[in-house]
Structure formats: C-alpha cells, structure tokens
C-alpha cells in the first residue's frame, strides 16, 4: 500500500492483480476529483499503458463489512464534467 495526494486530498492506494483502489484517508461529504491525476498515477506506476481508454465511470458505495451492524449509505448527487 502507498499513500498519494491529489489536490490536497490523500488516498491509500491498494493494488491486487488488475484491481486498483484509491481510498480516501478521511471521510468526505462532497468534493471534486481530477480523474486525470488518478489515471496519470496508474500510468506512471506502469499499471496501465498510456494508450488505455476509459470505458466507464462508476460511483457509489462499495460494502466490505459493517461488522454485522445496520448501516445506511446515501448518495444524493453525482455529476461529471469534462474539459
């Protein structure tokens, strides 16, 4: 695992085979992401060729464990802007 920072926000980076996860180190309720920073990091690490293309963008909650406790996860808004 490594920790990287983009635009002042830190992420723990996990890689296992072709699976790559950027997990924010603090809980956030809103924000903006520059996806190119994430893609450039993956390319610089040699985890993807620079000729790669984007096929989909997903957003939501990935449940790993709630320790058998009830939990509510809400996504109230999502938008995507390209430049």
Mean model confidence by pLDDT? 89
The first-to-last residue Cα distance is 31 Å
Q: Give, in order, the helices and strands.
A: EEEH
Return Rg in Å.
14 Å
Strand composition percent: 15-25%
Proportion of residues in helical segments: 10-25%
Question: Which secondary-structure class do the elements indicate?
Answer: alpha+beta
Largest sheet: 3 strands, antiparallel
| Global morphology | globular
> In which order are the strands of the major sheet placed?
1-2-3
User: Counting H and I runs of at least 4 residues, what is the number of helices?
Assistant: 1
How many DSSP-defined strands? Answer: 3
Low-confidence stretches: none
Task: Summarize the structure in short.
The chain is an alpha+beta fold and 83 residues long. The protein is built from 1 helix and 3 strands; from the N terminus they run βββα.
Describe the overall structure.
This protein has 83 residues and is an alpha+beta fold. It contains one helix and three strands, in the order βββα. Strands 1-2-3 form a three-stranded antiparallel beta sheet, with no helix packed on it. The mean pLDDT is 89.
């Amino acid at each position: 695992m490594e920790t990287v920072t983009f635009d002042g926000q830190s992420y723990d980076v996990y890689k296992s085979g072709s699976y790559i996860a950027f997990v924010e180190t603090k809980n956030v309720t809103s924000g903006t992401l520059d996806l190119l920073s994430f893609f450039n990091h993956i390319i610089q690490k040699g985890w993807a060729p620079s000729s790669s293309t984007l096929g989909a963008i997903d957003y939501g909650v990935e449940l790993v464990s709630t320790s058998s406790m009830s939990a509510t996860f809400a996504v109230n808004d999502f938008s995507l802007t390209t430049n």
